Amino acid sequence: MDAVSEHRSGCPINLTVEILGDRWSLLILRDMMFGNRRHFRELLTNSQEGIASNILADRLRKLVEQGMLTRADDPTHKQKAIYSLTEKAIELVPVFAQIGAWGSKWLPVSEELSIRAILLEQGGPRMWEQFMRELRREHLGESAADADPDELPVWMQLRAGYEAVMARKAGEGGAGQTGD
Amino acid sequence: MDAVSEHRSGCPINLTVEILGDRWSLLILRDMMFGNRRHFRELLTNSQEGIASNILADRLRKLVEQGMLTRADDPTHKQKAIYSLTEKAIELVPVFAQIGAWGSKWLPVSEELSIRAILLEQGGPRMWEQFMRELRREHLGESAADADPDELPVWMQLRAGYEAVMARKAGEGGAGQTGD
DNA sequence: GCAACCAGTTGCGATTTGCAAGCAGTTGAT
DNA sequence: ATCAACTGCTTGCAAATCGCAACTGGTTGC
Questions:
Q1: Distance between first and last Cα of chain B
Q2: pTM above the 0.90 mark?
Q3: Which of strand D's nucleotides are less than 7 A from any protein C-beta?
Q4: Which nucleotide has the shortest C1'-to-CA distance from B39?
Q5: CA A163 → C1' D3, Å?
Q6: Which residues cross the membrane (chains A, B) (predicted)?
Q7: CB-count exposure of residue A4 (10 Å: 0-12, 13-18, 19+)
Q8: Would you identify the CATH topology of the domain A9-86?
Q9: Closest residue by Cα to the C1' atom of nucleotide C6?
C-alpha cells in the first residue's frame, strides 16, 4: 500500500476491506465515535475488547495514514495527543448503523451494548445525519449553526438508552455497574 | 469461538468484526451476492483479488459454521458443491450497500467496479429489499409470488449498468473486455 | 483411455498477532 | 525537590495466520 498504490482491485468493497478489514480498526473508530475517546490511553484502557498497546499504536498510525484520523498535540499536556475523526471517517456512520443493526439481529449481543445500535437503527437516516453533524462539530470544529435546538443530541439519546438498560438490569437483581 | 462462545465482547460491531473482520470473508460474500458464484472453482478463478485455494476453503468452512452459507451437493456432478447464502447473509445487503457507497465516494475505485455500488445506493432501501427478495428466490428457493412483474430485476439493472460502462470505455479508445 | 475439471489439502516461509515488559519523558501533589 | 502516577508509545518474543505453489483422489466428457 505505498504511493504506487498496490491495491488488489478497484472494487469499493475490496478497497474498504483493505483499510478496515481487520480485527481492530473498526472497533477503534467505534470507540471514538460512540464512546468519545480521543486519547491513546482512553482507547487502550477503556477498550471493551482489550486491545494491546502495540496494536493500538499501529492501527492509529495506519488510520492517520489513510486519512481516517488526524493527530494533534493536546495544549493542556505536552505528552498527550488528541485524535480526531475526519469527514471520511464520520461518513462511516451509516455503515456502523447498518452493521450494528445486522449484528443486533443475528449475533449473540448483550442488551446494554446493543441498545445504542438499535436506537440508531430506529432513528434512521435522519438521526444518522444529525449524529454526523454532532461529530463534525466535535471533531472538525464546525459551528453549531445548523443545530436544531428542539432536538435532543443523538449522543445524549444513546447514552440515555444505555443508562436506562443498565438501571433496569440493576433493579432486576444483578449488581449493576455504571460506566461507558 | 467454540460452543462455550469465547467472544471479546457482546457489542454488535465487535461480534460482526469477529465473523467478517478479515481480508476475505466479505469478498466471498460479495462474489456470491453480486457475481452469482456458487461453486468453489468459480469463486477461486473468477476472484478479482486472487484468493488462494486454501484460504477460500478455510473461509467457506467458517462461513458455513457461522450460518452465513450452506453447502449442498450438486445433483448434476458428484464432485461439485453448491454454496448458498442464508437469510442471515442475505440481510447483509444494506451493509454492502452502505460500504459500497462509502468506498465509491472515498476510495480510488475503478469506474466499472463501482457502478453497481452507485446504482445500489441510488436505488435506496426499496431496491435493496427487491434485491434481497431475488437472492431469497435464488438461494433459499422461495417462490416468486411476491415479485413485481413490472420492475426489472435488480441483478439485471446492475449488469446493465456495468455493461454500459464497459461499452463506453471500449468505445472511448482502450480495448474493452467483457466478463463479470 | 485420457485430458480436463472437481473440491479441496499439504508444506513451508513470511507476515501478523497478542502478551508482557519497558521507556523517556511530563504532571501534580506533597 | 521528590516521587508516584500518567503520557504515548516501543521492544522482545512466541504463537497464530497468511499466501504461494504444488499436489491429491476422484469425476466427467470426449
A1: 35
A2: yes
A3: 6-12, 17-23, 25-29
A4: C7
A5: 39
A6: none
A7: exposed
A8: Arc Repressor Mutant, subunit A (1.10.10)
A9: B79
